[in-house]
Design a protein that fits this description.
Elements lengths: L1 E9 L2 E8 L4 H11 L6 E11 L2 E15 L1
Antiparallel strand pairs: 1-2, 3-4
């Protein structure tokens, strides 16, 4: 329904801008639901590539696969 652009990590958080297409009804509906606050979160799929040696639950480097609105 769109694409994430200007993807970066700032202060340990993934930040991005979403550009929605106007070409499909599904995209227009998703955009409207975000504007109304019904959809408020994103799911991030990634492959961990490097872990913190002191805390193996903390990912230091990862390969981003997808970002989905949920």
């Amino acid at each position: 329904v769109g694409q994430a652009v200007d993807i970066a990590v700032e202060k340990g958080m993934l930040v991005f801008e979403v550009l929605f297409t106007d070409a499909t009804e599904e995209a227009r509906q998703a955009y409207q639901l975000i504007q109304e606050g019904v959809l408020r979160t994103f799911s991030v799929g990634y492959i961990p590539r490097e872990f913190d040696p002191k805390d193996q639950n903390r990912t230091l480097k990862a390969e981003l696969l997808e970002i989905s609105v949920v």
